[in-house]
Amino acid sequence: MARPPPRSAPRSGWPARPSPSPTPAPPRNYALDIALSTCIQNYITSHYTYVGYISGFGYQYRAASGNLYTKEGSHWDILFYTCGC
Hints:
Number of strands: 6
Strand order of the largest sheet: 1-2-6-5-4-3
Oligomer: single chain
Radius of gyration: 13 Å
Largest sheet: 6 strands, antiparallel
């Protein structure tokens, strides 16, 4: 995120498996789960671009950085893309 949300939230993180890609060296991805809260939802929905509803996942928003924010049933799932540096 460009800056942290105004309030902290329970979270957990782990390296995410890269999705299948035609490129030979996909970037490293990291995922983070954040508990649902009105504050977090308002921040994500007002700062990032709505992508749409993805069946089986949830409502998705994308940051200019490419990071993907998905509102799943019980939490926000955030996928961070890095350059692999």
